[in-house]
Structures are given as structure tokens and as C-alpha cells.
């Protein structure tokens, strides 16, 4: 009787493990690998976008934010519950709600008090977070050419810096326009807004950022290749290097607002959604069984209330800024300030999940 029970439990355990592996493979395929191929395929489109009015980029950003961008962080209140065994639903919601209220409020206050400095802070925070998301995706994919925390941090610097730093090098005019729109929400004098962002766009700053990105990229790819020579998987390294090359090309060629709008929805947000599917047992089981739509439906249901809440934050920021909202550029600027307010607590929740899953302690992930 005991022997039969043990064999049965073993079979169930094996089945559960196999289902989990199928779910991880499906997440990597549908939420990271295929979208990366899609972005590469869009390179010819991106190359002509600098010829389009900036309003095309604004519309693209708005659509991407509406479809998936805002939703990707809207399940944060359930992350502690699902990623830990000792946290209740009430505690999960309470802790995350307080973090969003306090940290998000601090970000909005910073824009009112020092908008240019807050803009730089937002760029830096987004650099960190988007790199954070890509490193987690690489860990999920099982690459083994980033075996140390230092190499993963270098990868973070490169991956996050591509969308934030490369457009500054390649398309400073539109980048500056967005900065002036954001600062201009809080500084009614247009000339004062322009003067506030001047130091970010002088040639010395742009060249320094460009040189840093080239050097960091070469170092990261080179160290990865050295790991391959020492026995790490060539396939994982080729994928990493290929994604980096695609992102370099995308942000060098495409107009910044359009490029960020597509990247936010197609790349960063989707990768995070896939990660959240895996920490939801029911969604992960559905995906492991081949039910992609079922897993997405469950995520969409969970994310719907706070996705709406995110758009209410956009509306609240729009009503509160001194300069008002009168043009598409103002709407983009308001959206970015609201996203900045939501990003800081989202980074904190994601960092907690990173720690729980051992992303920065290679070999310890559960």
C-alpha cells in the first residue's frame, strides 16, 4: 500500500514538474522569443518613422500603453501572495498599496518641486527597471553565460541603457522635445523648460552616454563569449547577443517616441506578464497544458481593476499640472509622469520578486 502510494506520488510529482517546465518554455517562447523576432521584423518600419510627425509616435505609445503597458504592473498587489507561502491576501494587498501610495506620491511631488531632476530620475529608474526585466527573462530562458551577479548587473546596464541611452545619441531632437514637454507641465515658461534640460543634450553628454553604451555592450558580449569558450551554451549567448543587436538597431533607427511605444508593449511589458503568469499556479497550469488564451484571460481578469486605476492616475496628474493639457505632446507628458509615479513602487515589487526567485544569485532560483 505504501509502495503504491509512493509510486503514485512520484508520478504526480513528475507530472507537475513537467507541467512547470512546459509552462516556463511556453512563457519564454510566447512572451520573449517571438516578440523579439517581431521587433526585429519591424526594423524597416522603424527606420522610416523619423520621417513621420511625432504625433504618430504618441499614438503608438498610447495604443501600446492601453493594450498591455499599463496592465503589466497591475497585478503587483498579488505578487507577494503568489510568490511566497507565508503572506496572506490581505497583507499582500496592504503592503503593496502602501508602497504605491507613498512612493508614487513622492515621485509626483518630485516633479512639482524639481521637474528637470525628476525627469532625470525617471530615466535612470526606467534604465534600471527595463534592464531588470530583461535579466529576469534571460534567467527564465536558462542562459548559462551569465553565471555571476556581476555579469548579470552588467547585462542589466546594457539592456536597460539601450532604450534609454541610444535614442539620446541617435535622435536628440525628439528626445529633447519629450523632456521639454514633461518639464513644461510644471514650468509654464517654455524658455525656462528648455533651459532646464539643456545639460542633458549638449554634445558632451550625448557622446559620453554613447561611448559608455558601446563599451558596456562590448564588455558584456565579450565576457559572455569567454564563458562560451569555457563551456557555456553557445545558443544562449547567441540569443543574448542577437537581442542586443536588434535593440541597438531599433533604437538607432526608429524615432524615440515610436520606438519606446513599441518596445514598452511588445518587449518589456510582455516579458513581465509572462513572468507573472508563472507565479500564478492556475495560469501556469493552463499554460503548461497548452491553454495560452486561458492563462492570458486569467491575467487580464486579475489586472483589469488596477489597469483602470492606472488610467485614473493619468487623469489625476493631468488635472493637477499647472500648465494644463492642450496638445498630444502634453498628453504624452502627463502619461509619462503618471507612469513614473507607478514605476517606482513597481520596481520595488519586482526587486522583491527577483530576490525571492534568486535572479541575482545565479543557481539559487526556485
TrEMBL record:
Using the UniProt annotation, give all residue ranges assigned to the region (Disordered): 1-20
Q: Which UniProt keywords apply?
A: Cell membrane, Dioxygenase, Iron, Membrane, Metal-binding, Oxidoreductase, Transmembrane, Transmembrane helix
Naming one, the record's GO cellular component terms include:
plasma membrane
| Highest taxon of the lineage | Archaea
Q: Please report the record's description of how this protein sits within the membrane.
A: Multi-pass membrane protein
Q: Which cofactor does it need?
A: Fe(2+)
Protein name in the entry: Probable beta-carotene 15,15'-dioxygenase
Q: Which organism is it from?
A: Halorubrum lipolyticum DSM 21995
The lineage, from the top, is: Archaea, Methanobacteriati, Methanobacteriota, Stenosarchaea group, Halobacteria
Amino acid at each position: 500500500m505504501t509502495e503504491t502510494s509512493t509510486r503514485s506520488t512520484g508520478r504526480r510529482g513528475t507530472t507537475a514538474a513537467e507541467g512547470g517546465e512546459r509552462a516556463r518554455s511556453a512563457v519564454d517562447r510566447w512572451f520573449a522569443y517571438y516578440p523579439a523576432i517581431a521587433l526585429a521584423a519591424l526594423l524597416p518600419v522603424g527606420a522610416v518613422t523619423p520621417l513621420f510627425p511625432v504625433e504618430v509616435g504618441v499614438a503608438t505609445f498610447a495604443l501600446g500603453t492601453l493594450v498591455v503597458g499599463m496592465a503589466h504592473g497591475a497585478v503587483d498587489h498579488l505578487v507577494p501572495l503568489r510568490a511566497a507561502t507565508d503572506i496572506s491576501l490581505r497583507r499582500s494587498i496592504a503592503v503593496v498599496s502602501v508602497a504605491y501610495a507613498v512612493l508614487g506620491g513622492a515621485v509626483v511631488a518630485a516633479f512639482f518641486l524639481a521637474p528637470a531632476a525628476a525627469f532625470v530620475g525617471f530615466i535612470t529608474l526606467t534604465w534600471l527597471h527595463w534592464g531588470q526585466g530583461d535579466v529576469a527573462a534571460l534567467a527564465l530562458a536558462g542562459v548559462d553565460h551569465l553565471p555571476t551577479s556581476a555579469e548579470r548587473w552588467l547585462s542589466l546596464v546594457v539592456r536597460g541603457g539601450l532604450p534609454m541611452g541610444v535614442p539620446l545619441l541617435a535622435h536628440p531632437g525628439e528626445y529633447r522635445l519629450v523632456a521639454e514637454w514633461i518639464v513644461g507641465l510644471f514650468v509654464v515658461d517654455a524658455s525656462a523648460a528648455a533651459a532646464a534640460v539643456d545639460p542633458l543634450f549638449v554634445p558632451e553628454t550625448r557622446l559620453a552616454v554613447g561611448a559608455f553604451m558601446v563599451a558596456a555592450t562590448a564588455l558584456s558580449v565579450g565576457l559572455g563569449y569567454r564563458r562560451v569558450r569555457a563551456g557555456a551554451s553557445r545558443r544562449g549567448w547567441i540569443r543574448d547577443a542577437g537581442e542586443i543587436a536588434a535593440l541597438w538597431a531599433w533604437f538607432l533607427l526608429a524615432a524615440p517616441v515610436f520606438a519606446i511605444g513599441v518596445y514598452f508593449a511588445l518587449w518589456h511589458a510582455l516579458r513581465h506578464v509572462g513572468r507573472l503568469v508563472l507565479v500564478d499556479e492556475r495560469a501556469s497550469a493552463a499554460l503548461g497544458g497548452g491553454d495560452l488564451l486561458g492563462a492570458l484571460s486569467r491575467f487580464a481578469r486579475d489586472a483589469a481593476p488596477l489597469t483602470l486605476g492606472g488610467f485614473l492616475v493619468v487623469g489625476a496628474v493631468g488635472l493637477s499640472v499647472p500648465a494644463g493639457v492642450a496638445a498630444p505632446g502634453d498628453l504624452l507628458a502627463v502619461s509619462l509622469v503618471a507612469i513614473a509615479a507607478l514605476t517606482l513602487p513597481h520596481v520595488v515589487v519586482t526587486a522583491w520578486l527577483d530576490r525571492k526567485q534568486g535572479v541575482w544569485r545565479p543557481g539559487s532560483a526556485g
